[in-house]
Design brief:
It is built from 19 helices and 19 strands. It has 602 residues and is of the alpha/beta class. A seven-stranded parallel beta sheet has the order 9-10-8-13-14-7-15. Strands 1-2-3-4-5-6 form a six-stranded mixed beta sheet, with helices on both faces. Strands 11-12 form a two-stranded antiparallel ribbon. A hairpin with a 2-residue loop joins β11 and β12. α11 packs across α12. It starts with 11 loop residues before the first helix and ends with a strand.
């Protein structure tokens, strides 16, 4: 293999998958993309096993492994983007019925080559495993024919299932081996020596300047193309790229827009200004504004501006909001809806709140405070502190009703951390706002509506799903996201959801404002201790809506008998495993908590 031969010395399984990808890139692009993703999976799994700086994420699927903060820090933003391209093209190969082109499979193989080059030069312990400094990716050296017959998407899907099943069996065996290794000091010492050797090899390899050309410009363009395809932009028309414009303040008066996204009426909805990956997107801001001026003058419609350097992306509708980070692009329908709202949305302060939904003064006050934050202060996030039993859900239902009638939103996502709370929220929406057609995504994943209710893990899984390369839930799908019981643990484990959706965001919490942690206020861009609105237990008791708590002393099982890991349910064991028992992540977790207290005040 001209590109991956160095892997054979120390990473035979990665080499095997990469070799299959290289053999099939031109004769069978779908199979090539599949094996490129497989090689990436094996490389990432090896890194988590070998590099002790990495922390295991909430799940062991490839998406979770790639997005773990310690992993992204280790590999750097450019290699993270390459890994994303490989993963998404591999997913398209397995799940999409749209033809995979040789250009796409070459993209996947090229990014795999750069990722493996970095792996070899960083971690190789022998000269044979270290790629030659002058080694480059050359698509002209790829074989034109393959001894392996072409495979269909269905065949690859079956093969992926078989690999996943084998991986699960291997993981189970590995788990038993790891449990045994904890009890065997000799194996622990050997593992420590191995990691020390790898760390030493890593330090030695990194002491040599890296002169390899990682083709960052091609990576940037490929990733922008990938994100646009996920949003349904085909980029087939020659007008879509390098669109010529006139009226620029330069000597020739001309310019070329990197990407233009067109509406159904042939007028520009958005432009994309792409900068070099090593440069800040700030450098392209003024040029993009000039491009928007020229397009507006030519077509009578000011487009929305996207700024991207391949790693960071921003959306800038300079008629509405300041620019803000986003994770991808909106679809054609979603962009056209933004344009419609420029002229059709109604002022929130002029619309009456439906008193059939909310009938208490503090609920109306909360809705008005959030509406004022969105409309007058032009912020996109709000936090509501409200005591348990005071009607948080009804309050946000009233807010949803107001925003729907004002044409500020079309689709809403309500997130809760337990299935029981999801069911309660669906019932509340059906009772108080039946026209919202609430959908329980835990049980109805393919149903459409206005309000979607889901647990956090379910939503994470649905975000990753794509059909024929297009995501159902893209970054612009929801106009409003509501977080039930917004607190630090939700932000730490599932913060990627809130970063992914480019929407208005409302958080609900019953934790008193002074006890709400700083991370929660930070998530909603608020000063610590200053939520958008608050109605706490003392207020509810004073108003007569709630009664003060009273304590009763009684014996409880856990304080009396302790907690034993083996006696817990599977769900409780998962919660136990997620607890940070010790500051040292390598420290073993306890298998019990001793009892001894006779009674507790509740």
């Amino acid at each position: 293999m001209p590109h991956f031969g160095f892997l054979q010395a120390e990473w035979k399984d990665i080499f095997t998958a990469a070799a299959k990808a290289e053999l099939n890139t031109l004769p069978d692009p779908r199979t090539g993309c599949f094996y490129a993703r497989r090689a990436l999976e094996l490389a990432v799994a090896w890194l988590y096993k070998a590099d002790k700086s990495l922390k295991a994420p909430y799940d062991d699927n490839l998406s979770a492994l790639l997005n773990e903060p310690t992993f992204r820090t280790l590999i750097g933003q450019d290699r993270y983007t390459k890994a994303r391209i490989i993963k998404e093209l591999g997913n398209e190969a397995v799940h999409s019925h749209v033809p995979i082109t040789p250009a796409q499979s070459i993209e996947a193989l090229r990014e795999l080559f750069h990722f493996c080059y970095w792996l070899g030069r960083t971690y190789a312990r022998t000269a044979a495993g270290r790629p030659a400094p002058g080694l480059k990716f050359d698509p002209n050296r790829l074989p034109k024919t393959s001894p392996i017959p072409p495979q269909t998407a269905a065949q690859l899907a079956r093969q992926a299932e078989e690999i996943a099943q084998r991986d699960a069996e291997l993981k189970l065996r590995q788990q038993k081996l790891d449990e045994f290794a904890v009890e065997t000091q000799q194996l622990n010492e050997e593992l420590a020596r191995l990691r020390a050797d790898i760390a030493e090899a890593k330090r030695a390899n990194q002491s040599v300047p890296d002169t390899h050309d990682y083709s960052e410009t091609e990576t940037r363009d490929a990733f922008i193309d990938l994100l646009l395809r996920e949003a349904g932009w085909k980029l087939a028309d020659t007008r879509d790229r390098e669109f010529p414009i006139t009226g620029m303040p330069n000597e020739s008066g001309t310019g070329w827009v990197d990407y233009v996204l067109w509406g159904k009426d042939g007028r520009p909805l958005a432009l994309v200004e792409a900068k070099r990956t090593k440069r800040s997107i700030e450098e392209g801001r003024q040029k993009a504004k000039l491009y928007a001026d020229c397009l507006e003058k030519q077509f009578g419609q000011r487009p929305i501006i996207y700024l991207s350097n391949g790693y960071e992306h921003e959306i800038w509708d300079d008629t509405q909001y300041p620019s803000r980070p986003v994770q991808g692009f909106r679809t054609q329908d979603e962009l056209e809806l933004l344009f419609q709202r420029r002229t059709t949305h109604r002022p929130l302060h002029e619309i009456e709140i439906d008193r059939k939904i909310v009938d208490r003064y503090y609920q109306e006050r909360a809705i008005r405070k959030i509406a004022e934050a969105f409309e007058t202060k032009h912020v996109r996030r709000a936090l509501l502190v409200m005591a348990t039993g005071a009607g948080k859900t009804r309050t946000v239902i009233g807010l949803v009703d107001l925003l729907l009638r004002a044409n500020w939103i079309k689709r809403v996502l309500f997130l809760a951390d337990r299935v029981a709370l999801v069911n309660q929220a669906v019932s509340a929406f059906k009772k108080h706002l039946p026209s919202s057609a609430p959908v329980n995504l835990v049980t109805e994943k393919n149903v459409d509506g206005r309000v979607y209710v889901s647990t956090y893990p379910t939503m994470l899984g649905l975000i990753e799903e794509a059909q024929d390369g297009e995501r159902r839930f893209g970054p612009g799908y929801f106009d409003l996201v509501i977080i039930d019981e917004a607190h630090r643990s939700v932000y730490q484990r599932y913060g990627a959801i809130f970063e992914y959706f480019d929407s208005l965001l409302v958080g609900l919490t019953a934790t008193p404002r002074d006890e709400t942690d700083r991370d929660t206020y930070k998530l909603f861009h608020l000063e610590p201790g200053v939520p958008t609105d608050a109605y706490e237990l003392t207020d509810a008791v004073a108003d007569g809506y709630l009664v003060p708590a009273r304590s009763v002393s009684m014996a409880l099982k856990f304080p009396l008998e302790g907690i034993h890991y083996n006696d817990l349910t599977e769900e409780e064991k998962r919660e136990w495993d997620e607890i940070e028992w010790d500051e040292d992540p390598e420290a073993p977790k306890p298998d019990r908590v001793e009892g001894g207290r006779q009674q507790v005040a509740v």
